[in-house]
Amino acid sequence: MKPYVIVNPVAGSIVDLRLRLKQLHRLDAQEVRVTQRAGEAETLAQEAIRAGSDYVIAVGGDGTLNEVINGIAKPHRARRLCVGVVPLGTANDFARSIGLIRDIDANIDILRAKTTATIDLVRMTSGRRRYFVNVSAGGFSGVVDEKLTPEMKSAWGPLAYLRSAAAALPELQAYRTTMIFDDAEELVIDVYNVVVANGQFAGGGLPVAPEANLSDGLLDVVLIPKRPAAEMAVLAAEMLLGKHLSSDSITFRRARKISVQSRPGMWFNADGELVGNGTAVFQIIPRALNFVVGK
User: Fold this and answer.
1) DSSP reduced 3-state for 237
2) pLDDT, tens digit, for every residue of 200-235?
3) How many whole angstroms separate alpha carbon 148 and alpha carbon 127?
4) Percent of the chain with pLDDT over 70
5) Which domains does the chain have, with CATH numbers?
6) What pLDDT digit, counting tens, does each position of 71-111 carry?
7) Predicted local confidence at residue 174, as pLDDT
8) 34-43: long-range contacts at Cβ-Cβ below 8 A with a sequence spacing of 24 or more?
């Protein structure tokens, strides 16, 4: 079936919407719908399913894709669908993990060729239920997301994540955190940050989980424990290079299910959207989505 295309007109890389829509004509879409408000991509994805579509394409950033994923996320329904993305956001972190680049014409070629791979989906519950495909982060990352306004994204582009991190530094604090992995191992630790990753990248290309595999049925968990400032500076440099998993300054685990409880309550996001600050539970749903991928 022809694709059902959902476009976020305020995505970070969309300057001329008419030009982008003209380029998207090559997809020969069943429908091209342009969102009018935050959250509408989720509703449109549900409409695509009701219209009988089996191929849904998100045009925008990680947030737009996350809305689409949540519109189709019931696993028994999602497995019948093919999902594609034209990465036109500020960060496009998930697109990096599936071999896509910023060139819109090259990505349209990929979407037309429709080479797919099955990937894992993650169900997160923290006050409410949310699904994601890339990364959830809590603690310091939650504070960064609070600082990351649409105006900052527009003004700073990919550097907006670094700018919001700088704004959040005065609020850096440790969280007394209890982690439970696969209902078996318990770990009590003071942390600045918790990263639960399905994909490899976050924050505009930072390789937070450089060994993550989208279809291995496991979540990569990176914990940033409370450390002296000098150690944190070294760790930051290692993270920029994707060399931090071998560092004694982090704690790393893999699991199918993770529970996180902290004092004070830790705000978690799902692909950049804040979800909640209560007890958070993450559960992998193996190979739940068919995704169009690049090389």
Assistant:
1) helix
2) 998 778 899 999 999 999 999 999 888 776 776 677
3) 22
4) 86
5) 4-114 (3.40.50.10330), 128-285 (2.60.200.40)
6) 998 756 667 799 999 999 988 999 999 988 778 999 999 99
7) 86
8) 34/7, 34/9, 35/6, 35/7, 35/8, 35/9, 35/64, 39/67, 40/67, 41/6, 41/8, 41/67, 41/68, 41/71, 42/67, 42/68, 42/70, 42/71, 43/71
